[in-house]
Amino acid sequence: MTAPYEPGALPLLAHALLTTWQHREDRLLTVDGYQLTGGIRSAIATTAERAFARLDPAGQNVARKVLLRLVQVGQDAGQTRRRGTMDQLRRLVPDEDLDNVVGAFVGARLLTVDTGTVEITHEALLSAWPRLRDWIEADRTGLHVHQRMTEAADVWQHQGQRQDLLYHGAALAMSAAWADDHAGDLTPMEREFLAASRREQQRGVRRLRRMVALLGVLVLLAMAAGGVAWWQSDQAQRQRDMAVSQKVGTLASGLRATNPALAMQLAVAAHHTADTLEARSAVLTSTTPYVSRFRSGGDWVNAVAFSADGQLLAIGTNDGVAQLWDPSNPRQHRPLGTLPVTGEVCCLAFSPAATIRVLFTASAKGAQLWDVTDPGTAKPLATLDGSDKAIRDATFAPDGHTIVVTHEDYTTRRWNVTDPAHPAELPAEQTSQCADSKPRSVSSPDGRTRAFAQGYQVWPCDADNPKPVKIELGKQITGLAFSPDGTVLATGGVDGNFYMWHAPLAAYLDQRRNPDAVRATSHDHRTIVTGSGRVFLGPANSGQIAATVDNGEEFTLWELDPSHAPRQLARQPVHNLVAVAFHPGGKVLVTGDNSGKAIVWDVSDPTTPHPVTTLDDDFKNVNAVDFSPDGNLMATGDTNHGVRLWDTRNPASPQQIAFHTHHTEAVVGVRFSPDGKFLASTSYDWTIRLWDITDRTSPSATTTITGHTDSVHAVNFSPDGNTLISTGRDRTTRLWNIEDRQHPTPKAVLSHPRPAAAAFASDNRTVVTVADGTVKLWDTDYQTVADKVCDLAGQPISPQEWAQYFEDTVGYQPPCP
Q: Pfam families given for it (predicted)?
């Protein structure tokens, strides 16, 4: 039987023959040469992949942009070649990069260039090369939107930039949304086309406003018609405010890592504009650490230092600005005083001596001591004889009588400054630091920890933990200083600003001893435990016993007593152990494992736990276990999509009373509400289900909650039962308002660098999360957080910053004036 003809087979065959010829032996085509090509179907893909692999990372990025420009993508399926011009591509990428990439693919006979045009040589490349096929499928809808926009922009450009050819409505919204995420893939002409379309739309909004004003006059003549017009105007205003709030809230969340001071104020401004999920989430993620921003008026802030009493902060820039600020006043807009230094200020140090307030400054023009008792009129005391080596660090001895100056070659000079007006040089003494390779360093107030800064990161190191831990602070750091009480870390930045981080660095240092911490909370929400393995708490009336799961092979019982460290009571092997739950009575514990068993243990004597019974059903894996607050019910979740309810009035012998498989993937979390009337379950199917268990033998699904973009790991209720908190593999913690059990609504989304665990504290508003070894407390009251942001914001958002993010949709209204 003859095989049917395959479209694209001839180009594949032609390329296979070509590459076989390139691997010939003398003038003979060989089987070995053919096999080197990868065969008919693989030859073109092999050639393309080799050409791509020879490019450096920047060239590979250019190749992706160029090739996608040469593909015509259908909205739902299919793609074909399309011809482009070298001029169009040069507007997208630099000439040299373009020539290198195009040359590489032309040399591989995958691209054809002819009189200024370029196109893919073989249509078959679009389906035969997996990498190109994946690029297309990864964002087919976006590529289709981009191509239509490119065509529209080209017509607009060649038709004299007529206004009637600009985008508006849904086309503009889709293109603008795509462009916001792919700014680097736009040509200047496409950017200009979008900008003109947005301006025209804004003019249309203004025309609409004038029309609304006219309709307002007509209200006097026709109340009914005017009433409708007013409602429409109000709705339009509300929709505009909602859209602006969503956009700015999303931008604020994205800025959090690189410009937290600005992100905090943008979040509050977005929330003031409209109460949207995006704005609420952005406000709540502003909680820790709060950042105060101040503008120095100079260039890079190279150095920062606190006075011994914490009442002054000195800053120095690389263009010769040295200032004194009040660190207790985040709302100040100008310094208390300025020192008349010249040249780059490389380091600053305050004397701890109490007689007079002395500041050391070092710049390109020399090192000086200053009397800054009155910050507004600083007085020079003495100049230290210079060295031909630049100064990189200076530290006062604790008694304030000696200052040690370190030069760029790590040599040191010591000066007796008991009389700061007459410093005397002392004999040299060898000093050491725990990491001389880092250019910025500072000691903690207690002297036990030394922190080094480089780029965007801080590394603390101390005697207890010789391995440094990297901490991201979001801004390139050019200066570093602790406040005397250790509650504030001041940093200088390359943007001419300096920042005060209102969270003790010591908290971060302590967390490095808790890697991969996972939390557990008691049912009364009053006890939270973190550790390096999974932690489960017993009831408060059990003398507070905790169980930890160790490597999935055993559980350990611990006695928790605030007066001393946890005391190990017993270790019990359980193969493939996954979950543990204590019965509220404190005498029974149930384990779930990946062997398909739920085992009931008698732990009335926690030093000798022993199994009582095994619940063996079609579980596959028992992933989650929880007891109702009254102890009369137990819920289990398993890999066979099952959620099961058990009668545990006799906790040693649970009896299954209900079962459902409404989830479509494995169930990995179950949790009872505080009143015991509802059960929440989570699954790998990305959903949360709420179950009304008033009738315990026939639970009914109240609703399905969606929003996570990956599997949902765990769920928890607030103490009052009105808020649900869920965590998932999508690296978010989500809060849901479930006062109306039939219609849950999202309250906020908290993002983490890795999947987290979360629970409510007993105050009903504080959320505790653990992610990436870091324990965080989140205040979920928006107004409280917004007020705190403005109390500590420092200098307010500028009109230029406002215009950049709000454009002309909302007039300048700084949230923290």
A: nSTAND1, WD40
- Shared domain for 493 and 593, answered yes or no, is no
Q: How many domains does the chain have?
A: 3
Tokens standing for residue 493 = 């930045």
Which residues fall within 8 angstroms of residue 646, CB to CB, at 6 or more apart?
Answer: 615, 633, 634, 635, 636, 654, 655, 656, 657
Question: How are strands ordered across the β-sheet holding 774-779?
Answer: 757-760, 766-771, 774-779
Sequence-ordered list of residues with C-beta below 8 angstroms from that of 222, at least 6 positions apart, any chain? none
User: Among all chains, which residue has been given the structure tokens 């937290």?
Assistant: 260
SS3 465: coil
102 lies in the same domain as 161? yes
Residue 482 makes CB contacts below 8 A (sequence gap 6+) with 306, 442, 443, 444, 445, 451, 488, 489, 490, 505
Q: Same structural domain for residues 100 and 50? A: yes
pLDDT tens digits for range 531-585: 444 555 555 444 578 888 877 788 888 887 777 777 889 999 998 888 899 998 8
Q: Which of 414, 328, 333 is nearest to 367 (CA)?
A: 414
Tens digits of residue pLDDT in 62-104: 888 888 888 888 766 678 888 888 888 888 888 788 888 888 8
Q: Of 134, 159, 192, at which residue does a domain stop?
A: 192
> What CATH number is given to the structural domain containing 432?
2.130.10.10
Query: Rounded to a whole number, what is the distance in angstroms from the first to the last CA of the chain?
Result: 82
* Residue owning tokens 């604790």: 398
**What digits encode the pLDDT tens for the residues 265-302?**
888 988 888 888 888 888 888 766 677 788 877 778 88
Task: Quickly state the pLDDT bin for 677 (edges 50, 70, 90).
Answer: very high
CA distance 243 to 224: 29
Angle, nearest 10°, between helix axes 130-138 and 140-158?
80
452 domain-assigned = yes
614 and 485 part of one domain: no
For 741, the enclosing helix (H) or strand (E) is none
Top-confidence range, 2-16, 244-258, 492-506: 244-258
Alpha-carbon torsion (248, 254, 256, 259), positive or negative: negative
C-beta contacts of 555-563 below 8 A and 24+ residues apart: 555/580, 555/591, 557/603, 557/606, 557/607, 557/609, 559/606, 560/527, 560/529
Q: How far is CA 152 from the centre of its chain?
A: 36
> How far is Cα 343 from Cα 298, in angstroms, rounded to an integer?
12
Do 554 and 477 fall within a single domain?
no
CA-CA distance, 8 to 72, in Å (whole number)? 16
| Contacts by 566-573, CB closer than 8 A, 24 or more apart | 569/545, 569/606, 569/607, 570/606, 570/607, 570/608, 570/609, 572/601, 572/609
What is the CB-side half-sphere exposure of residue 762 using CA atoms within 13 A? 7
Tell whether 178 and 320 lie within a shared domain.
no
Task: Report the Cα 720 to chain-centroid distance in Å.
Answer: 29
Quick: pLDDT tens for 426-479: 886 544 343 343 445 666 565 555 566 666 666 655 545 444 555 555 556 777
Tally Cβ neighbours within 10 Å of residue 708.
21
Residue in the structure block whose two tokens are 């959090």: 256
Residue with structure tokens 């078959």?
124
In this structure, what are the phi and psi dihedrals at residue 646, rounded to the nearest 5 degrees?
Answer: -125, 140
- Examine the fold and report which residue of 144, 162, 192 is the final residue of a domain before the chain moves on: 192
Cα–Cα distance measured from residue 579 to residue 535, given in angstroms and rounded to the nearest whole number: 10
* Owning domain of residue 103: 9-192
Same domain (yes/no): 548, 427: no
Helix 169-181 / helix 188-218 crossing angle, nearest 10 deg = 140
364 and 487 inside one domain: yes
Q: Indicate the burial class of 198 (C-beta count within 10 angstroms; 0-12, 13-18, 19 or more).
A: middle
Number of neighbouring beta carbons within 10 Å of residue 756: 23
